[in-house]
Specification:
By secondary structure, the protein is an alpha/beta fold. It is built from three helices and nine strands. The protein has a single domain, classed as Rossmann fold (3-Layer(aba) Sandwich). The protein has helices at residues 17-34, 50-59, 112-122, and strands at 10-15, 40-46, 66-74, 87-90, 100-108, 128-136, 149-153, 159-160, 176-179. Helix 3 links the parallel strand 5 and strand 6. Helix 1 packs across helix 2. The chain binds 1-O-pyrophosphono-5-O-phosphono-alpha-D-ribofuranose (PRP).
């Protein structure tokens, strides 16, 4: 049953803001330990990873040499299921050749987006390439992808919030939530 504190269409909170923050802090600790003496370039994948990239970057120790860039891809369009086709909408603004690149993703579902990005960035000769993912749906995989830093395993339900959308709505929610089934119904 929907509680009074969640917006219309939200059925239940799946991960609270505190749970997201705890996972982010843990990931930042692991990343800081591994990149201690190396500069790292965080590449956030828009739009979904907008907030995760910002929060992860701020959770890293200020002694770490951190740069941030973004790219934008889309595979879902306005649907709740992936189209299976990944499109690059915006490229990074700087060359990544010779840099230690860490891809920051909000979610890995069928894996096509991360696989596409690992291939795209890998061909540009970075010094190293790893990925940091907040949410994983491992049971949905269509292609194998390597996730180096994983925050949370997601239940088998479509979720929104903390950057994730349904038809561009709900990205601003500070938690991750599942939607009421009626939200997905086409208007008559
Ligand atoms: C979502 C999400 C990931 C990708 C994961 O992006 O942010 O980038 O899908 O799905 P996959 O593993 O099945 O490829 P989306 O295409 O919805 O664009 P958005 O981030 O702008 O919402």
């Amino acid at each position: 049953m929907r509680t009074a504190v969640t917006p219309e269409g939200v059925a239940a909170i799946v991960f609270t803001a505190d749970e997201i923050a705890a996972a982010t802090t843990r990931l930042a600790g692991d990343i800081a330990r591994d990149y201690r003496s190396e500069p790292v370039l965080l590449v956030g994948v828009l739009k979904g990873a907008l907030f995760f990239t910002a929060d992860l970057a701020r959770a890293l120790p200020d002694t770490l040499d951190v740069s941030i860039d973004f790219l934008a891809v889309t595979s879902y369009g306005n649907r709740s299921a992936s189209s299976g086709e990944v499109r690059l909408l915006k490229d990074m603004s700087e060359s990544i050749e010779g840099k230690h690149v860490l891809i920051i993703e909000d979610i890995v579902d069928n894996g096509l987006t991360l696989s596409y990005l690992q291939d795209l960035i890998g061909r540009r000769r970075p010094a190293s390439l790893r990925s940091c993912v907040l949410l994983d749906k491992p049971y949905r995989r269509r292609v194998d992808v390597k996730i180096d830093y994983l925050g949370l395993t997601c239940p088998d339900t479509f979720i929104v919030g903390y950057g994730l959308d349904y038809q561009e709505k709900y990205r601003n929610l500070p938690y991750l939530a599942r939607l009421e089934p009626w939200v997905f119904q086409e208007p008559a």
